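An instance follows:
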Amino acid sequence: MDLPADTLPATDSMKRLPTGLRLATWNIHSGIGSDERMDMDRVTSVINTIAPDIIGLQEVGWHRSHHSKVDQFAFLREKTGYHVVEGLSRDPLRSRFGNALLTRFPVTSRRWLDLKVLGHPPRAAVAGEIGDKAAPICAVVTHFGLTPPEREVQARRLLDVFAPETNGSPPTVILGDFNMVRESTRASRLLGEHFSTCVAAPTYPSWRPVLPLDRIYLSAHWKVREAQVIDTDAVSTVSDHLPLVADVELVAQPAEVTAADLPA
């Protein structure tokens, strides 16, 4: 499902993306921290401190009757100044909950992808093409399910739409909470067949991270310069996950990537 692009005009300087970008992914747990307090100001403070160019957030908003009905997507937009692409994953008549793509740069097109598997809670992905329409990058934000068969179906569905092609596809990043307990799983191997680099490190639970649930997948256009988990005492109380950050550099344009550059 295609969504409307940003309506605000972008200047030429805003359209041109730098070759070096800071990416991040973070499950914010509806702003509810390990201290069981919901405080979206803490969330936006962490985001502004990390200062990513593009960040994917999971579990944004509310879907339970006892949750605060604050529009967290609007809050993020107001408090960070980023462009925010909403990717709702649950019934919008009874909730306002899902993924969010935040970026400093204009979003020229948006797409929502249903990842729900029968018998499991709703899941989705949201994507945006960012920067100059003539040479955009594609950023995808997703949140996979809790069971291995579910995640395998979701990985295949995601790849059907966003797998890099051998010639001319935009540089692509996937930012997500993949709920993969082990470093290597069937779903991770499927993704790895099309995305040559995966940034992963223990991010869950935030107070004693041991599981690499949150990951960043990169097409062959990118090189990772540095990656880190933000695990300060202050950040560890903001959510039950820690933010994963990667500083990357665009080292190849779409036409320069051939079949030889893709994973075997």
Q: What stands out?
A: The CA atoms of residues 38 and 99 lie 18 Å apart. The radius of gyration is 17 Å.
